[in-house]
Amino acid sequence: MLFDVHAHLEFNEMYKTPIDDIMKQCKKNKMGKVVSAGIDLASNRFSLELSQKYPNLVLCGLGLHPETVAQDLSEAKKCYQFIKENIKNAKAISEIGLDGKYPSMSRQKEYFIDLIKQGIKNRLPLIIHTRKAEKEVIEIIEEHIKGKHPIILHCFSGKKSLIQRGIDNGWYFSIPPNVVRSQHFQMLVQLCPLRQLLTETDSPFLAPFSGEVNYPWNVSYSIKKIAEIKGLDEKEAENIIQMNFQAIF
Ligand SMILES: [Zn+2]
């Protein structure tokens, strides 16, 4: 079975298919679970509703993207409140972190650290976004996570030494389908032990082929490439990733 730890299913203007058809296609394509990654108020609401409508397929991720924190404080506040009120229904804290592309780094850090604490308190895996702030993100997680807690670095673009640091900390790395054309993600797969790898799509983004819309079942491309790099057959790689997923969720 296939597992997508990070998808944005609310972008209905980008998908050419209605959400219920996407859900049907997921089942047809042997999807085990998809983590719907909330990033702001509207997507968190969507995540929650979708997980209630498709409880066997969709896991609710509630999150607050650093971009939202940087760009719109009043939205961030509402979003944060929604997360707190609905956290009992969440299966992950999706998409939190730091993004150096946007200003207000101290405010970004404040929300990031707070949501890490919410995740710990509620025993929820943390799905981390980081861009141009990889080292800071690693330092913050190291500082606030004592002991074992599932950390998933999604689409991690940091350099080798930072990847190694994440590996040594026992964190997971989720690999998107564009690994088929990304040297960086291929290097990451090579470096990271199989038991710390997961698959994601970041749908509708990061499709295996440039310019296409991405869908959750495209994790099959990630599995294929992971199998190739690790010298396994695809079924073996798929099974191990399933085990990794089920150890967390
Ligand atoms: Zn994302």
Task: Provide the succession of SSEs.
Answer: EHEHEHHEHEHEHEHEHH
Q: How many domains make up the 3D coordinates?
A: 1
User: In terms of quaternary structure, what is this?
Assistant: single chain
Name of the CATH superfamily = Metal-dependent hydrolases
Helix share, percent: 40-55%
Strand order of the largest sheet: 1-2-3-4-5-6-7-8
Largest sheet: 8 strands, parallel
Bound chemical compounds: zinc ion
List low-pLDDT spans.
Answer: none
Strand-pairing-aware structural class = alpha/beta
Q: What's the alpha carbon Rg, rounded to whole Å?
A: 17 Å
Overall pLDDT metric = 97
What is the CATH T-level topology?
Answer: TIM Barrel
Shape: globular
Tell me the number of strands: 8
- CATH class, anyone? Alpha Beta
- CATH A-level architecture: Alpha-Beta Barrel
Query: Span from first to last CA?
Result: 15 Å
Strand content: 15-25%
Number of helices: 10
